[in-house]
Amino acid sequence: xxxxxxxxxxxxxxxxxxxxxxxxxxxxxxxxxxxxxxxxxxxxxxxxxxxxxxxxxxxxxxxxxxxxxxxxxxxxxxxxxxxxxxxxxxxxxxxxxxxxxxxxxxxxxxxxxxxxxxxxxxxxxxxxxxxxxxxxxxxxxxxxxxxxxxxxxxxxxxxxxxxxxxxxxxxxxxxxxxxxxxxxxxxxxxxxxxxxxxxxxxxxxxxxxxxxxxxxxxxxxxxxxxxxxxxxxxxxxxxxxxxxxxxxxxxxxxxxxxxxxxxxxxxxxxxxxxxxx
Length: 277
Hints:
The protein is mainly beta and about 280 residues long. The chain has one domain (about 10-270). About 10% of the residues lie in helices and about 50% in strands. It is built from three helices and 16 strands. The chain has a 16-stranded mixed sheet that branches. A hairpin with a 4-residue loop joins strand 7 and strand 8 (about 155). The longest helix is centred in the N-terminal third of the chain and has 10 residues, at about 10-20. The protein is globular, with a radius of gyration of 18 Å.
């Protein structure tokens, strides 16, 4: 069983959790990151009418966030979240979203990690059209993809076709979509999300406001807790919490989770803001 499902914070926690919970592994092989997926991307600017239009003051093309991932006081590796550009995907204006995670060389000798997530998110509707991931964590390697037919509420994978609710999110777009929603302490946001061949109800509880300091600076934040409403999920991990800046950007500056032994954190150390659309 994977230590963390690929929801809300793809790969940021699994990097430290897998690397240090299996530190006795002798596997030290490497792999190349998956190439970015360009299938369905057009060169022209002839766009179809959007399926829906939602406000987005939080992020835009060019945004780049880099994190240091640690297990307690041990620095395990780095992770990134990036909005690379806007493309024409099958006639719809879409963000290219990329998440990566990689173990530091010292730990890679014990447990190699090199993960790559890629998603195409509709700029107007803030839902996914395409998702893929290439994962290499220790002995585990996998390449998976999903196409989202948002018009007909279907999800297509290499193995199956699933019915989905309207505007279902994927493991990467769920975070970006949450950043665009007005968050009030005490409230809960719900959405259907898809990962690894399954659909889940994802709840995001808004807990409190708090000022935190990370390598990138000191920020006023709003703390949220993502929960998967599925029996058995998270039963071995404890709670995951995310600190989003308490402003229109909702930058994820800090992420923490307790695991069987100790805790995992991802702290923002470098960031570049994206363009406003």
